[in-house]
Amino acid sequence: MAESESGQDKTEDPTDKRKRDAREKGEIARSKELNTVVVMIVGAAGLLAFGGSMAEMMMQLMRDNFTITREAILDERSMAIMLMASGKAALLSVQPILLALTVAAFVGPISLGGWLFAAGSLAPKFSRMNPAAGIKRMFSPKALIELLKSFAKFLIVLAVALVVLMKDQADLVAISKEPLEMAVVHSLQLVGWSTLWMAMGLLIIAAIDVPVQLWESHKKLLMTKQEVRDEHKDSEGRPEVKQRIRQLQRDMSQRRMMAAIPEADVIITNPTHYAVALKYDAERGGAPILLAKGSDFMALKIREIAAQHEILLLQSPALARSIYYSTELDQEIPAGLYLAVAQVLAYVYQIRQYQAGRGKRPDPLRDNLPIPPDLRRDS
């Protein structure tokens, strides 16, 4: 029980990522028995379908090559042409079966597991060259299963062959009494049917082997609970890594925010707990933009930078809190605060005019600025 709770038992179904990784490595279910059966059935069907025409073409080829004139034999050029023509005729005679077998050789493997080309599986594995590992594989349970399958195939093929021979005994005797052309066609038909029946017998092995291969492939991909948790962390991001990334992002954002404070027109404070920096660009138009905001220690840093660059600080606790909670960095203030901020900016403009000697000192800004109830924050 403790072992199971610790996640050491492979009891969890493989995740999609585990399946993808295994497929990229070429680790998918394959059945050699299924491939053999498909090739044998297609080959037998090809013999039954094209055996007659193939026999006629081959016999005609033999007639042509056994009836060469003496002049052609002594003519090197003529013999070369005859050789090329014979090769072409032989290739054409077996072409249908060759094409069918080629298709079967591709269809058999992809019928279980689908099409896959994994370059990694072509790389040499020096671990397989270890004699000790090779001996261990020879006496492994898997090797024993393969031996039993081979023995079962031998018995099935032997049994089917004996049944076919007994059934076709009369035809085999009749072949010896038939003309050559008929005997060749008849022989190909017998070979085709015999191969087909033996392939049908091997279907029993394939029907057992396919589920076994699927089960072994699935069992190999099973995961422990810890592996599932680790993979989830890797895919979603480990908490400590994500926390570190968020911290770095906050640090970068704060550095950019602090660098933008000298461009502010005014700093509105709480006066100690909150501070927000606003800028209004008359040429660009639109509403004032929040360049920086902070609370407690960050508010203190904003006030210090503002003092260094002689930026006006105004105390308006209600407005400072409203802007802090309602506006994100580099965004315009909400429409509900336009009037209140407009009064602040007008006051800033009057202070600048006074400092430049072009006006009288304005009266202190009142703290009862118009702030809508939905944007007001009391704390």
UniProtKB/TrEMBL annotation:
<dbReference type="InterPro" id="IPR006135">
    <property type="entry name" value="T3SS_substrate_exporter"/>
</dbReference>
<keyword id="KW-0969">Cilium</keyword>
<feature type="transmembrane region" description="Helical">
    <location>
        <begin position="196"/>
        <end position="215"/>
    </location>
</feature>
<dbReference type="Pfam" id="PF01312">
    <property type="entry name" value="Bac_export_2"/>
</dbReference>
<keyword id="KW-1133">Transmembrane helix</keyword>
<keyword id="KW-0653">Protein transport</keyword>
<comment type="function">
    <text>Required for formation of the rod structure in the basal body of the flagellar apparatus. Together with FliI and FliH, may constitute the export apparatus of flagellin.</text>
</comment>
<dbReference type="InterPro" id="IPR029025">
    <property type="entry name" value="T3SS_substrate_exporter_C"/>
</dbReference>
<feature type="transmembrane region" description="Helical">
    <location>
        <begin position="104"/>
        <end position="123"/>
    </location>
</feature>
<keyword id="KW-1005">Bacterial flagellum biogenesis</keyword>
<protein>
    <recommendedName>
        <fullName>Flagellar biosynthetic protein FlhB</fullName>
    </recommendedName>
</protein>
<keyword id="KW-1006">Bacterial flagellum protein export</keyword>
<feature type="transmembrane region" description="Helical">
    <location>
        <begin position="144"/>
        <end position="166"/>
    </location>
</feature>
<keyword id="KW-0812">Transmembrane</keyword>
<comment type="similarity">
    <text>Belongs to the type III secretion exporter family.</text>
</comment>
<feature type="region of interest" description="Disordered">
    <location>
        <begin position="1"/>
        <end position="27"/>
    </location>
</feature>
<keyword id="KW-0282">Flagellum</keyword>
<feature type="region of interest" description="Disordered">
    <location>
        <begin position="358"/>
        <end position="379"/>
    </location>
</feature>
<keyword id="KW-1003">Cell membrane</keyword>
<dbReference type="InterPro" id="IPR006136">
    <property type="entry name" value="FlhB"/>
</dbReference>
<keyword id="KW-0472">Membrane</keyword>
<dbReference type="GO" id="GO:0009306">
    <property type="term" value="P:protein secretion"/>
</dbReference>
<feature type="compositionally biased region" description="Basic and acidic residues">
    <location>
        <begin position="7"/>
        <end position="27"/>
    </location>
</feature>
<dbReference type="GO" id="GO:0044780">
    <property type="term" value="P:bacterial-type flagellum assembly"/>
</dbReference>
<feature type="transmembrane region" description="Helical">
    <location>
        <begin position="37"/>
        <end position="58"/>
    </location>
</feature>
<keyword id="KW-0966">Cell projection</keyword>
<keyword id="KW-0813">Transport</keyword>
<dbReference type="GO" id="GO:0005886">
    <property type="term" value="C:plasma membrane"/>
</dbReference>
